[in-house]
Protein backbone atom coordinates (compact mmCIF):
# COMPACT_ATOMS: atom_id res chain seq x y z
CA UNK A 1 0.00 0.00 0.00
CA UNK A 2 1.41 3.39 -0.93
CA UNK A 3 1.79 6.09 1.70
CA UNK A 4 -0.96 8.26 0.27
CA UNK A 5 -3.45 5.36 0.45
CA UNK A 6 -3.58 5.22 4.26
CA UNK A 7 -6.84 7.18 4.26
CA UNK A 8 -8.45 4.41 2.23
CA UNK A 9 -8.07 1.95 5.08
CA UNK A 10 -11.16 1.12 7.07
CA UNK A 11 -11.62 2.90 10.39
CA UNK A 12 -10.86 -0.31 12.29
CA UNK A 13 -7.65 -0.93 10.30
CA UNK A 14 -6.50 2.65 10.79
CA UNK A 15 -7.19 2.51 14.53
CA UNK A 16 -5.26 -0.77 14.76
CA UNK A 17 -2.33 0.74 12.81
CA UNK A 18 -2.24 3.67 15.23
CA UNK A 19 -2.21 1.36 18.26
CA UNK A 20 0.50 -0.78 16.68
CA UNK A 21 2.64 2.30 16.01
CA UNK A 22 2.33 3.47 19.62
CA UNK A 23 3.10 -0.02 20.96
CA UNK A 24 6.17 -0.34 18.70
CA UNK A 25 7.34 3.14 19.71
CA UNK A 26 7.12 2.10 23.38
CA UNK A 27 9.18 -1.00 22.55
CA UNK A 28 11.95 1.23 21.23
CA UNK A 29 11.47 1.17 17.47
CA UNK A 30 12.31 4.37 15.63
CA UNK A 31 9.57 6.39 13.98
CA UNK A 32 11.27 5.84 10.63
CA UNK A 33 11.22 2.04 11.04
CA UNK A 34 7.58 2.05 12.16
CA UNK A 35 6.65 4.32 9.27
CA UNK A 36 8.30 1.93 6.80
CA UNK A 37 6.45 -1.07 8.25
CA UNK A 38 3.04 0.64 8.39
CA UNK A 39 3.62 2.56 5.14
CA UNK A 40 3.00 5.99 6.63
CA UNK A 41 5.09 9.12 7.06
CA UNK A 42 7.35 9.25 10.14
CA UNK A 43 5.67 12.53 11.15
CA UNK A 44 2.40 10.59 11.32
CA UNK A 45 3.98 8.13 13.76
CA UNK A 46 5.16 11.04 15.94
CA UNK A 47 1.68 12.58 15.84
CA UNK A 48 -0.01 9.30 16.82
CA UNK A 49 2.47 8.84 19.67
CA UNK A 50 1.81 12.36 20.95
CA UNK A 51 -1.95 11.83 20.74
CA UNK A 52 -1.66 8.60 22.73
CA UNK A 53 0.46 10.25 25.43
CA UNK A 54 -1.87 13.24 25.76
CA UNK A 55 -5.25 11.58 25.36
CA UNK A 56 -4.67 7.91 26.08
CA UNK A 57 -5.67 5.04 23.83
CA UNK A 58 -9.08 6.63 23.20
CA UNK A 59 -7.34 9.41 21.26
CA UNK A 60 -6.22 6.85 18.66
CA UNK A 61 -9.71 5.87 17.54
CA UNK A 62 -10.84 7.36 14.25
CA UNK A 63 -13.26 10.25 14.68
CA UNK A 64 -16.01 11.22 12.27
CA UNK A 65 -14.89 14.01 9.97
CA UNK A 66 -16.73 16.86 8.33
CA UNK A 67 -19.85 18.76 9.22
CA UNK A 68 -22.72 17.09 10.99
CA UNK A 69 -25.96 16.66 9.12
CA UNK A 70 -27.98 19.87 9.20
CA UNK A 71 -25.09 21.95 10.54
CA UNK A 72 -24.41 25.45 9.16
CA UNK A 73 -27.67 25.71 7.26
CA UNK A 74 -29.20 29.10 6.61
CA UNK A 75 -32.70 27.86 7.47
CA UNK A 76 -33.51 26.12 10.74
CA UNK A 77 -35.30 22.78 10.66
CA UNK A 78 -38.55 24.46 11.73
CA UNK A 79 -38.25 27.04 8.94
CA UNK A 80 -37.47 24.31 6.39
CA UNK A 81 -40.55 22.33 7.42
CA UNK A 82 -42.77 25.42 7.26
CA UNK A 83 -41.56 26.38 3.77
CA UNK A 84 -41.82 22.83 2.48
CA UNK A 85 -45.33 22.50 3.92
CA UNK A 86 -46.39 25.70 2.16
CA UNK A 87 -44.91 24.55 -1.16
CA UNK A 88 -46.64 21.16 -0.97
CA UNK A 89 -50.06 22.42 0.14
CA UNK A 90 -50.53 25.77 -1.60
CA UNK A 91 -49.88 27.49 -4.90
CA UNK A 92 -47.74 30.62 -5.14
CA UNK A 93 -50.69 32.87 -5.93
CA UNK A 94 -52.51 31.56 -2.83
CA UNK A 95 -49.71 32.93 -0.64
CA UNK A 96 -49.57 36.27 -2.45
CA UNK A 97 -46.75 35.65 -4.90
CA UNK A 98 -47.02 36.64 -8.59
CA UNK A 99 -46.46 33.11 -9.92
CA UNK A 100 -48.80 30.36 -11.10
CA UNK A 101 -46.41 27.49 -10.37
CA UNK A 102 -43.54 27.00 -7.95
CA UNK A 103 -40.21 28.03 -9.41
CA UNK A 104 -36.91 28.58 -7.65
CA UNK A 105 -37.57 32.32 -7.78
CA UNK A 106 -41.04 31.83 -6.26
CA UNK A 107 -39.58 29.69 -3.47
CA UNK A 108 -36.86 32.29 -2.92
CA UNK A 109 -39.50 34.98 -2.41
CA UNK A 110 -41.56 32.68 -0.17
CA UNK A 111 -38.54 32.02 2.04
CA UNK A 112 -37.81 35.75 2.24
CA UNK A 113 -41.46 36.46 3.05
CA UNK A 114 -41.86 33.77 5.74
CA UNK A 115 -38.42 33.76 7.37
CA UNK A 116 -36.77 37.09 6.49
CA UNK A 117 -33.75 35.09 5.25
CA UNK A 118 -32.56 35.93 1.74
CA UNK A 119 -31.08 32.92 -0.08
CA UNK A 120 -29.31 32.96 -3.44
CA UNK A 121 -31.26 31.23 -6.21
CA UNK A 122 -28.68 28.43 -6.37
CA UNK A 123 -29.07 27.71 -2.64
CA UNK A 124 -32.84 27.58 -3.10
CA UNK A 125 -32.27 24.94 -5.78
CA UNK A 126 -30.12 22.93 -3.37
CA UNK A 127 -32.82 23.08 -0.69
CA UNK A 128 -35.45 21.95 -3.19
CA UNK A 129 -33.27 19.03 -4.30
CA UNK A 130 -32.63 18.10 -0.66
CA UNK A 131 -36.39 18.03 -0.08
CA UNK A 132 -36.90 15.82 -3.12
CA UNK A 133 -38.64 18.51 -5.14
CA UNK A 134 -37.12 18.39 -8.59
CA UNK A 135 -38.03 20.45 -11.65
CA UNK A 136 -40.67 18.81 -13.81
CA UNK A 137 -40.98 19.29 -17.55
CA UNK A 138 -44.43 18.91 -19.09
CA UNK A 139 -44.95 16.08 -21.54
CA UNK A 140 -44.57 17.16 -25.15
CA UNK A 141 -47.82 15.95 -26.57
CA UNK A 142 -49.94 17.34 -29.36
CA UNK A 143 -53.33 17.78 -27.71
CA UNK A 144 -55.24 18.00 -30.97
CA UNK A 145 -53.79 14.85 -32.47
CA UNK A 146 -56.07 12.28 -34.01
CA UNK A 147 -55.46 8.99 -32.16
CA UNK A 148 -56.78 7.00 -35.15
CA UNK A 149 -54.51 8.80 -37.61
CA UNK A 150 -57.29 10.07 -39.91
UniProtKB/TrEMBL annotation:
Note the InterPro entries from the entry. Answer: Homeodomain-like_sf (IPR009057), Winged_HTH_dom (IPR025959)
- The superkingdom listed in its UniProt entry is Bacteria
Protein name, as recorded:
ISPa47 transposase
Instruction: Tell me what organism the protein belongs to.
Output: Methylocaldum marinum
Pfam families assigned to the protein according to its UniProt record, in alphabetical order: HTH_29, HTH_33
Q: Which SUPFAM superfamilies match?
A: Homeodomain-like (SSF46689)
Q: Domain Winged helix-turn helix: where? A: 99-147
